[in-house]
Structure formats: structure tokens, C-alpha cells
Write a structure and sequence with these properties.
The complex is a heterodimer of chains A (245) and B (98).
Chain A: H1 2-12, H2 29-56, H3 61-74, E1 79-80, E2 85-87, H4 93-99, H5 101-118, H6 127-151, H7 156-182, H8 189-226, H9 228-238
Antiparallel strand pairs in A: 1-2
Chain B: H1 2-29, E1 36-37, H2 39-49, H3 66-97
The chains are: A mainly alpha (245), B mainly alpha (98).
């Protein structure tokens, strides 16, 4: 009986939801410009870090490409959700855990640029805001969750799962905050608007976050098992091992 | 040793089933939904929130049909998984050969 009620509640929830990317033109000019300005320093550091990784540990080049490609795959998979619409995972957790958040800002930017130009998904004017939520906020959350889990000695696979899943959820929360700031509720202001946007996809996104977490653990484990040498380099980047010599 | 291997295998299979289940479950429970791209609904939500707002910029290029759009999405996923699988295959092959 209780189970039935739960499903009823799910079915009665508002049917309109939105996927993570803010559509082209749906942020006022000053907000669009603001987010573009915010992401530029992250992109700068990201490009510098990528260069550093490639020159210092050039054997990691393929791993880096794979982390970017993983985000490419996952963000192309529009999955059906409980609310009757579709949304997609981000796939940035893997790279954030392996290479740190600044690298993912660049990779996320590339994914979003592809989708904005060729798929009319997201947009050029909103690219700054979308890069901030998916390429910076999500990876930052994933990175720190992973760090925290490792510090309190949680199993690596659980740490990776939590990092990826919470990074995915965080991305969507940041998106709703961005929308709420740009489009506050006429009567009740920003918080009411945020509650509305965030409430819509709390249900939509939770299963997707779990999927993203599991898939990320799979790929992470594959790399950890079969690419032992490269993983030594990654642990140096993660700060668990000192560079020898 | 063998026991932990079997345990891991079972956990892996269970996780794969969970992933598939989570993706398929909404289709079964919510049979009448249209599962449309959620993007268009963002516009509606914003219009409700902020009726005076007019989008000031529209996409430079939009895929001419949903078929073309899904082809491009498939292309994105295929290209990405190609790179991931190439890397995994490379590492697996190398670790077996040494």
C-alpha cells in the first residue's frame, strides 16, 4: 500500500522538467556575461594543467583523452526519467577524480561547445553558465567528495561512486540556482524560484546520478586494474604518492 | 581468493542489472508520458516564472529534424565510447602481454 502511494506521488509530480543545460538565450545578457567571466580563469588554469600533465606524464595522454571521451558518451545518453521526460548524466566525475577539477573545466567546455553548435542543446550565450555547472561545480564537488572519502578510508569504489553521483546532482542544483538568480519568482524571489527549479529534477536526476556513479566505478576499476603504471602517475596527481627521484 | 572473485562477479552483475533497471523502470511505470526532450520545457518553466522574459538569442544552427539530432547524439556517444574502448583495450592487451 505504502509503495503504491509512493508511485502515485511520483506520477502526480509536475510533469515539466528540464535537462541540465540552460537553453540558448534563456539567460539575460548580464548573467550570460557574468558566467562567461567566471569560467575564463578556470579554463586558463585547466589548459595549463593539461599541458603540464601531458609534458610531465605523457603516458597519461591517452587516459586523459579517455576521461574526456567518457564525459562525451555519458552526456549524449538521454535517459528516460520518472517525471516522464528525459535528462542525461554528466560523466565529468571520472576525470575530476583522476585528474582534478581544473582539467575537467576544459573537457566539459569542449563537450558543451559541441552540443551547443551541432545539437542546439545548451547554447553559446549560456555556455559560460553551463560550463560553470557541469565543468566546474560538478567536478569540484566530485573531487572534494572523493578526497574526503579517501581521507576517512572509505573503499575506493564507494568513494568514486559517491563522487560521481554527488557531482552529477550538484551540477543540477547549480543549474537551478543559476536559473533562479536569473529568473527569480515575481512574488517570493530567488529562494522560491530555486525551490521550484530544484524540486522539479530532484526526482528526475536521482536515478541518473546513481547510474552515473555505477558506470564511473566500472570504468575507474578497469583503468585501475589494467593500467597500473599510469595509475601511479594519477596517484601523484591525486597527491597520494610523492614523485620518485 | 576464488570466493572473493565470485563475490565481485556477482556484485558486478547486480550493478549492471541495477543500471538497466533504473533506465527501464520509468518506461514501465510511466507508460503514457511522452519522454520528450526536457529542454523545451525549460522555456515553459521560465515563461511561468518570468512572463516578461524574451529569449534574446537563438541557436546559430538547429538540427533540421529529430532524426538528424539523434544521429548527432549517436555520433557523440559512438566517438566517445570508441576512445574509451580503445584505451581500455590497449591497457588490457598490454597487461596481458607482459
Amino acid at each position: 500500500m505504502k509503495k503504491r502511494n509512493f508511485f502515485l506521488i511520483l506520477l502526480l509530480l509536475p510533469k515539466d522538467a528540464f535537462s541540465m543545460h540552460i537553453m540558448e538565450g534563456f539567460l539575460p545578457v548580464y548573467w550570460a556575461a557574468f558566467w562567461w567571466a567566471v569560467i575564463l580563469p578556470f579554463l586558463f588554469f585547466g589548459i595549463r594543467n593539461i599541458k603540464k600533465i601531458i609534458t610531465e606524464n605523457h603516458e597519461l595522454k591517452m587516459m586523459l583523452a579517455a576521461a574526456g571521451a567518457f564525459a562525451f558518451v555519458l552526456s549524449a545518453l538521454k535517459l528516460p526519467s520518472m517525471t516522464g521526460s528525459c535528462s542525461h548524466p554528466t560523466g565529468v566525475g571520472l576525470g575530476a577524480v583522476m585528474f582534478g577539477p581544473s582539467v575537467m573545466s576544459v573537457l566539459g567546455f569542449i563537450v558543451l561547445l559541441f552540443q551547443a553548435l551541432l545539437l542546439a542543446h545548451g547554447g553559446i550565450t549560456t555556455l559560460g553558465a553551463n560550463t560553470f555547472s557541469m565543468g566546474i561545480a560538478g567536478p569540484l564537488i566530485a573531487f572534494f567528495v572523493f578526497r574526503l572519502c579517501r581521507k576517512i578510508k572509505i573503499k575506493t569504489s564507494v568513494a568514486v561512486f559517491s563522487a560521481a553521483a554527488l557531482g552529477d546532482l550538484g551540477t543540477y542544483l547549480v543549474t537551478s540556482a543559476q536559473l533562479a538568480f536569473a529568473h527569480p519568482d515575481i512574488h517570493a524571489g530567488v529562494p522560491a524560484s530555486f525551490a521550484k527549479f530544484a524540486g522539479i529534477f530532484a526526482v528526475t536526476q536521482l536515478p541518473l546520478a546513481i547510474i552515473e556513479g555505477i558506470v564511473t566505478v566500472f570504468v575507474y576499476n578497469l583503468f585501475q586494474t589494467y593500467a597500473r603504471e599510469e595509475f601511479r602517475g594519477i596517484e601523484i596527481i591525486q597527491g597520494y604518492q610523492r614523485r620518485e627521484s | 581468493m576464488i570466493r572473493t572473485m565470485i563475490k565481485n562477479r556477482i556484485a558486478q552483475v547486480a550493478m549492471i542489472i541495477l543500471v538497466i533497471g533504473l533506465a527501464v523502470f520509468p518506461l514501465i511505470v510511466n507508460k503514457n508520458a511522452e519522454f520528450a526532450g526536457a529542454d523545451d520545457r525549460a522555456g515553459a518553466a521560465i515563461a511561468e516564472q518570468n512572463p516578461d522574459y524574451k529569449p534574446w538569442f537563438s541557436s546559430i544552427w538547429t538540427p533540421p529534424s529529430s532524426e538528424v539530432a539523434s544521429m548527432l547524439f549517436a555520433l557523440q556517444a559512438a566517438a566517445g565510447s570508441g576512445v574509451v574502448c580503445f584505451a581500455v583495450g590497449f591497457y588490457v592487451g598490454r597487461s596481458r602481454s607482459t
